Amino acid sequence: MTWKKQPTAELLETASSLISPYHQLKARTVEGWESLLIFAGVKRLEIITPSMKFKDIGETIADEGLVNTAKVLFRYLTNHAVRKRINAMEKFLDESAEYLGFGIYIGNK
């Protein structure tokens, strides 16, 4: 997880409750990851920071496979708690797109 820019306290609290405190603690800003990688000796660093978003059904099947996608879809349709969590996460990702993404960091050591 990469913060595209420094998140607000409210955003951090929401991320912690929806995603997980563990992942939120491991997240850094793009600049933070860049500094860490340069400190570790990475050279010619290229950084790509796409936004996080939910995929459509075709992309999900391609990434996760038909069986796993069917399992998640079944749980979504039959379990209110799962449906509520997935809907909340999708809303959070949409609303925090300017802050939250992931980083692809490419370089040589």
Question: What would you say this structure looks like, in words?
Answer:
There is one protein chain. Helix 5 (66-78) crosses helix 6. Strands 2-1-4 form a three-stranded mixed beta sheet. Strands 3-5 form a two-stranded antiparallel ribbon. The chain has helices spanning 9-18, 21-26, 30-39, 57-64, 66-78, 80-95; strands at 2-3, 28-29, 43-48, 100-101, 104-108. The chain is built from six helices and five strands, in the order βααβαβαααββ. The longest helix is centred in the last third of the chain and has 16 residues, at 80-95. The protein is an alpha+beta fold and 109 residues long. It starts with a strand and ends with a strand.
Topology:
Blueprint: E1 2-3, H1 9-18, H2 21-26, E2 28-29, H3 30-39, E3 43-48, H4 57-64, H5 66-78, H6 80-95, E4 100-101, E5 104-108
Parallel strand pairs: 1-2
Antiparallel strand pairs: 1-4, 3-5
Structural key phrases:
109 residues, alpha+beta, two-stranded antiparallel ribbon, 5 strands, globular
Provide a brief overview of the structure.
The protein is of the alpha+beta class and 109 residues long. The chain is 58% helix and 16% strand. It has one domain (2-108).
General form? globular
Q: What is the succession of H and E elements?
A: EHHEHEHHHEE
The helicity comes to 55-70%
What is the tally of beta strands?
5
Sheet of most strands: 3 strands, mixed
Major sheet: arrangement of strands: 2-1-4
Rg, nearest Å: 16 Å
**Structural category:** alpha+beta
Question: How many separate domains make up the residues?
Answer: 1
- Poorly predicted ranges (pLDDT <50, ≥5 residues)? none
**How confident overall, as mean pLDDT?**
87
